[in-house]
Amino acid sequence: MGYLSQPSEHSNMKPISLAKMDDNEELCSYASWLEKHPSVLENFDKVMSVAEGKEIVVFLDYDGTLSPIVDDPDKAYMSDAMRAAVREVAYCFPTAIVSGRRKDKVYEFVKLRNVYYAGSHGMDISTPSGSSKCEDQKHQIKGVDEKGNHVVHFHPAKEFLPTIQEIIKVLKENTRRIKGSMIEDNMFCVTVHYRCVKNEEDISVLREMVESTMKSYSNFHISSGRKVMEIRPNVNWDKGCALMYLLDTLGFDNFNNVLPIYLGDDRTDEDAFKVIRHIGQGFPIVVSSIAKKTQASYSLRDPSDVLAFLIRLTRWKKNMLQKLK
Ligand SMILES: O=P(O)(O)OC[C@H]1O[C@H](O[C@H]2O[C@H](CO)[C@@H](O)[C@H](O)[C@H]2O)[C@H](O)[C@@H](O)[C@@H]1O
């Protein structure tokens, strides 16, 4: 299943216990953390000095990166200013949004036709032509995307769809009495939300309920996110593999010249950060206002910093083009 031999953390994984269910663990002071993961905004010119002449490809996570974290996942709207900035960036560079959410939902929020979308933590990708290098040809199927374009869909977890629907039904039933909890259908994965569960004891009960339910589904594993438990099928695929797949299918498989920029705030984005480190060039950028363990080289504080960075990136490209005239 692996793509370009990416190592998997999830193969043969059983449901695991969640040692930590909070948003993030603060490690040290933000100031000392910033020395290791400097702000890409404050060091913009220095950082971008290596980018001249390179093919920049931009990858953006959605929740917590393009939209602020809110209580109701159905109301995680991005601002018009952010939408305009992403649109401009996508005119300048190939741009993809890689989200844990189902792809159609992300498109509903973003509403931009000039970006690529990868949903369900990368397990739902549509690109113009698919990949000839992909080891997993049987999961590439011709179809039509949300924008009405003829595309090749890549669905590495397709076989799991009926079981995922069953899990959603069972989880909704089993967790019904936990006030504030919510089960989100993310197509190829499931998210159990507890941001609005006010009673601490209920959070522990919810965790036990989910773990005990998932004992019957050994082909799935549980990971943690920002006040969520994520239930994902055991396929060797993550946001890092999605990044590689997108680079390849969009024609950027010559790693000498490509410079991926990936912005994300969550644990699942760390897989993409690792891949960029492995490629050896590009900018893994974590969005965080607290010090936390990360593979990212640079940081941005919050979505408003992300907005400022995207605007700056577009301006940089326009200046470059101006210089060439
Ligand atoms: O990969 P992402 O685009 O970052 O998606 C990860 C999860 O994001 C959403 O949940 C998070 O944002 C919600 C809205 O702000 C918030 O209420 C929740 O507590 C956060 O965890 C989304 O609802 C999940 O399905 C995604 O898996």
* Terminal CA distance: 46 Å
**Helix coverage percent of residues?**
25-40%
Query: Which structural class matches the secondary elements?
Result: alpha/beta
Strand order of the largest sheet: 5-6-4-3-2-1-11-12-13
Shape: globular
Rg over alpha carbons: 19 Å
- Which small compounds were modeled alongside the protein? the ligand O=P(O)(O)OC[C@H]1O[C@H](O[C@H]2O[C@H](CO)[C@@H](O)[C@H](O)[C@H]2O)[C@H](O)[C@@H](O)[C@@H]1O
Overall mean pLDDT score? 91
Q: How many domains, in number, for the residues?
A: 2
Provide the succession of SSEs: HHEHEHEEEEHEEHEEHEHEEH
Strand content: 15-25%
Q: What's the number of helices?
A: 9
The appropriate CATH architecture of the largest domain is 3-Layer(aba) Sandwich
Look at the structure and give the CATH class of the largest domain. Alpha Beta
Unreliable runs: 4-21
> Care to count the β-strands?
13
Main sheet: strands, sense, barrel: 9 strands, mixed
- Enter the CATH topology name of the largest domain: Rossmann fold
Protein name: Trehalose 6-phosphate phosphatase
Cofactor: a divalent metal cation
Catalytic activity: alpha,alpha-trehalose 6-phosphate + H2O = alpha,alpha-trehalose + phosphate
Pathway: Glycan biosynthesis; trehalose biosynthesis
